[in-house]
């Protein structure tokens, strides 16, 4: 029996998003509203080719809901590749949350989708369109902008380190980049680091000292601004060749660890970091000694 979703135009509405099923894709339209995650509002809508999907799941959610989720293939979506597993569950753009009473309908669509999937494993190229340039956001120590061909960092006099001021404002043509590293601003030491093709072996240069990195935190570089930015840059880099793997950081100097624990303590005393966050991050830093 043919899959009826090939009729095109079937629609399934959930909380914060509406999925429209096509013969070869799912068009996801994200709602606007106070309760809708800001990342969804920024994305607006996304067309997900079925060739970019390798699985579909349906699970029980919280407080009388069910969750229908697409599982994208590794490397198929620049947004998810840049996020590298750091998105909180509620901000996952591949989840559709529905009332529990619609579980039977959700199971129907899940089965229909599974019958249309033909690809699996890592994708050789991005299959989901990236956010469109120009893009910009304000980090803690700089204003970052991307015009589609180059990334620009303009340092802030209130946040940039002396090392960055000495280096001057930076401009990085996409052709000179081999990859990037995005660390969520929702964790301590969030940042966006550009990896240059001409760079040598990995060093222990900290984000606040690296002219190829902008630092997040204290409300700067929020996910809904910095992640789409990173995805657009990553897509542009990938279009020109393979992306470099992010090297594992080397061990830090004990004096640097002590200084960062002191700074973390100041944030904790100021009420900007919770007891749990303080204890967890302090343990992480001590583990790097």
UniProtKB/TrEMBL annotation:
Residues 19-113, 144-233 form the DUF4429 domain. InterPro entries: DUF4429 (IPR027860), SHOCT (IPR018649). It comes from the Bacteria. It holds the Pfam family SHOCT. It comes from Streptomyces rameus. Residues 259-286 form the SHOCT domain. Signal peptide: none annotated. This is DUF4429 domain-containing protein.
């Amino acid at each position: 029996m043919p899959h009826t979703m090939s009729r095109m135009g079937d629609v399934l509405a959930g909380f914060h998003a509406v999925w429209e099923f096509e013969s070869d894709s799912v068009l996801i339209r994200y709602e606007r509203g106070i309760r809708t995650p800001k990342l969804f509002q920024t994305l607006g809508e996304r067309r997900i080719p079925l060739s970019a999907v390798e699985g579909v799941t349906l699970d029980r959610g919280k407080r009388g809901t069910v969750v229908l989720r697409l599982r994208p293939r590794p490397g198929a979506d620049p947004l998810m590749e840049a996020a590298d597993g750091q998105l909180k569950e509620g901000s996952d753009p591949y989840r559709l949350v529905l009332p529990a009473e619609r579980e039977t309908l959700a199971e129907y669509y899940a089965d229909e989708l599974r019958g249309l999937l033909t690809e699996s494993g890592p994708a050789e190229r991005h299959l989901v369109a990236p956010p469109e340039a120009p893009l910009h956001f304000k980090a803690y120590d700089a204003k970052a902008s991307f015009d589609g061909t180059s990334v620009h960092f303009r340092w802030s006099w209130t946040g940039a380190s002396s090392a960055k001021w000495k280096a001057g404002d930076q401009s990085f043509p996409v052709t000179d980049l081999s990859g990037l590293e995005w660390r969520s601003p929702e964790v301590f030491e969030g940042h966006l680091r550009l990896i240059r093709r001409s760079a040598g072996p990995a060093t222990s240069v900290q984000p606040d000292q690296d002219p190829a990195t902008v630092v997040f935190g204290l409300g700067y570089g929020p996910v809904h601004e910095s992640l789409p930015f990173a995805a657009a840059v990553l897509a542009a880099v990938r279009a020109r060749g393979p992306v470099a793997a992010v090297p594992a950081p080397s061990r830090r100097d004990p004096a640097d660890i002590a200084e960062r624990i002191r700074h973390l303590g100041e944030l904790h005393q100021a009420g900007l970091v919770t007891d749990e966050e303080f204890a967890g991050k302090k343990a992480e830093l001590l583990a790097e000694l």
